[in-house]
Amino acid sequence: MARFLITSALPYINGIKHLGNLAGSMLPADVHARFRRAQGHEVLYICATDEHGTPAELAAAEAGQDVRAYCDEQHVIQKQAGEQFGLSWDWFGRSSNPPNHRLTQHFCEVLETNGLIEERVDQMVYSVDDRRFLPDRYVQGICPHCQFPQARGDQCDNCGRLLDPTDLIEPYSTVSGSRNIEIRDTRHLYVLQTKLQDRIRAWVDAKSANWPNLTKGIAYKYLDEGLIDRGITRDLSWGIPVTRDGFPRPGFEDKVFYVWFDAPIEYIGATVEWSEATGGDWKRWWRLDEGAEDVRYVQVMGKDNVAFHTVTFPSTILGSGEPWKTVDDLKAFNWLNWYGGKFSTSNKRGVFMDQALELLPPDYWRWYLTAYAPEGSDTAFTWEQFQSAVNVDLANVLGNFVNRILKFTESRFEGKVPVGGQPGELERKLYADVSEALAEATAMFDAMEYRKSAQAIRRIWVLGNEYLTEAAPWTAFKTDPERAGVIVRTGLNLVGLFAAISQPIIPFAAQKIGAAVGLEGDLPWPSADGEAELNRLTPGAPISVPEVLFAKIDDDRVAEWAERFGGAEGA
Ligand SMILES: [Zn+2]
Predict the structure, then answer these.
(1) Which of 407, 511, 404, 524 is nearest to 465 (CA)?
(2) 298-346 pLDDT, tens per residue?
(3) Cα gap 327→310, rounded to integer Å
(4) What is residue 352's DSSP assignment?
(5) CB atoms within 10 A of CB 547
(6) Strand order from edge to edge, sheet including 91-94
(7) Taking residues 369-392, what's their average pLDDT?
């Protein structure tokens, strides 16, 4: 028994997430949480909406809503969509909630006490007509690198370069469109990451043995280039107020913390929310001086978030000098691409979580997005590959096996697990093959190798199919009913085993499959003892035949979806 704290990158508040977000953070975190719970470990799986920053304000303005009302509504929408997808969060919090305010202000104050915060005067774009500064996306103009006319203050969407608002040529306010722009002085707080460089590197050296190459590569790239001091406040009203000794910080009354400072702190904030709501003890998970020494902390995210989690968030935590838990396993994903481009929330490109659920149940997507996870490199979503994953893996290999053996049991064995007979050579071979495959599956889930986990599970499904084809109970039944009984009993135990191993990836179908052979609720993760695992069901116990588990997707539907979502070969 161990304790696993699991967090996925926080989904941003500006609208429901697309399948790329799901595939690269929330879903794999959920699969791992379910696997660890099934193993009997204590798991706390935490997520939250990331609600501050200019995109939230701009999305609210576009929706004609007050930003708080907008966030209230979007939080509920994202929570519901996640739950419908089976994301088994222990808590889904909000970075705008009071615990994150308190913690963010605390971290800034303690960093300042430790000499790691400095007030600096910055030059910022100021809109005279709007009577406000225009940080990040509040200002647009011509990109100084590629001349793209609608580059945003924080980044150019055309060439991808990170920008400073003062870099833009012919800037204008996105609030009013006004070009009456000045550059004015404004004071901001900086975290002195240059002073933390050695401590961060020592920490990465100590931790990164467990990290995949993608994570390690990004962390060392930033360290080797040299850390820079980082502004952590913005001239905005929506966000966490800047304080000193618990009071508004003089000169910072119209400023808030930068969203990237407070968002990762919400991992802790959301755990405090969980503890306030449930009576659980959040310090046991986060404070090394209050019982968190034996926690294994797993973070899951897309590659664009890795620098924030290997350098900037650790600089907050380590700079505090306080005994906070830091990440142990950091799993990063590449991009799931959408027909030659990226999925994009702001450009509404691709399939979004709510739309996906209109088309098909969550397990279809969960299986595809895990089996074809963008793990080793960027991966392209295609409707054809999705169709094949559903029709071949789920409908043929898994669904048909389950339905065939259950229907045969119903018609030939009175709907009960057959009694009597002894396993023979075929069963002994199956036990050995399944033992080996189970050990492999467990190792792959343990290592958070998602594609290989799905492959290992599919291999066990295939072993079951091969066994049933070779043993042919329908033929044996005519000449040797007792032998047919042994085969059917073994087949029904395979059904139970399929339910247990499939649970982390396709939890809804796994529940139905388990229930068909009398295994209700959450099933324990199997041992690597094939013989024991294939003799779990009680002879004589009743079984039931579920409705069709997975419907095949025909070519007409694929064509219709490709048309509707703009995904087509060559598009
Ligand atoms: Zn550009």
Answers:
(1) 404
(2) 999 999 999 999 999 999 999 999 999 999 999 999 999 988 788 887 7
(3) 9
(4) B
(5) 7
(6) 91-94, 42-49, 3-8, 295-302, 329-333
(7) 95
CA distances from 51 to 72, 216, 255, 506, 568 (A): 9, 28, 16, 30, 34
**pLDDT > 70 in the chain, percent:** 99
Q: What is the mean pLDDT of residues 96-110?
A: 98
Q: How far is the CA of 152 from the centre of ligand 1 (A)?
A: 9
Note the pLDDT of residue 162: 84
Distance 172 CA to ligand 1 centre (A): 16
Q: Is the pTM of this model over 0.85?
A: yes
pLDDT for res 214: 93
Return the ∠ at Cα 467 (arms to 462 and 470), rounded to 5°.
Answer: 125
Spatial distance between the Cα atoms of 571 and 565, rounded to a whole number of angstroms: 11
Confidence (pLDDT) at 300: 98
Q: Which of 5, 1, 79 is nearest to 281 (CA)?
A: 5
Per-residue pLDDT, averaged over 391-415, amounts to 97
CA distance 362 to 360: 7
Q: From the CB of residue 84, how many other CB atoms can be counted at a distance below 10 Å? A: 14
C-alpha distance from residue 227 to each of 109, 184, 198, 308, 315 (Å) = 21, 27, 10, 12, 10
Do residues 267 and 46 lie in contact, with contact meaning Cβ atoms separated by under 8 Å?
A: yes
What is the Å distance from ligand 1's center to 139 Cα? 14
Q: Is pLDDT of 568 > 70?
A: no
C-alpha 144 to ligand 1 mean position (Å): 7
* Chain segment 5-54, per-residue pLDDT in tens: 999 999 999 999 999 999 999 999 999 999 999 999 999 999 999 999 98
Those residues whose beta carbon sits under 5 angstroms from the ion ligand 1 are 143, 145-146, 148, 156, 158-159
Of 417, 509, 409, the closest CA to residue 457 belongs to 509
* 3-state SS assignment for residue 467: helix
- Helix (H) / strand (E) element for 49: namely strand 42-49
Q: Given this model, what pLDDT does residue 530 score?
A: 98
Q: Which of 158, 160, 568, 157 is nearest to 381 (CA)?
A: 568
The gap between the terminal CA atoms of the chain, to the nearest Å, is: 50
Distance 155 CA to ligand 1 centre (A): 8
Residue 153 has pLDDT above 50, yes or no: yes
Facing residues of 297 across strands?
Answer: 5
CA proximity to 287, closest of 237, 255, 322: 322
CA 413 to centroid of ligand 1, rounded, Å: 70
The Å distance, Cα 225 to ligand 1 centre, comes to 22
